[in-house]
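Reviewer 2 asked us to include a model.

Predict the structure of this chain.
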Amino acid sequence: MPVVDASVVVDLIAPDVEVDAPARVLMAKLAAAGADIVAPALVWLETSNALLTGIRRGRWDGAAADAASVELDRLPVRSADTHADRERAFELARRYDNWPVYDMVYVALAERLRTELYTADGRLRARLSHLPWVRGLADS
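Predicted model (structure tokens):
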């Protein structure tokens, strides 16, 4: 039951992502293994916001973002966070030099489920490199 963060989901559905992008390879591998892929509910908000940011920055147009948003709703990712995960995320954020709580909720969920967290966020991966269950896309 691996956890994926928004950086993975954005890299999976972004309109300009390549067919063989690492996030797509990871998700295909997890799906082929029958994995129950989970994330905090926040992932849908973060990913939707990234799609809007892409429009504002001229990375893609509105129609492409709309299509990606539809794809987002079809992903085989289940929301699995709890209030306790949000509380733990704040504790973790404080422990890691006030790192953003929205990143740490993914960590808290994976910690509680005792599973892997996959991220495409190099800074987060580097910050948590001492945790063997926090993995980058190349670690799958």
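The chain is about 55% helix and 10% strand. The longest strand covers residues 37-39. We have added this to the supplementary material.
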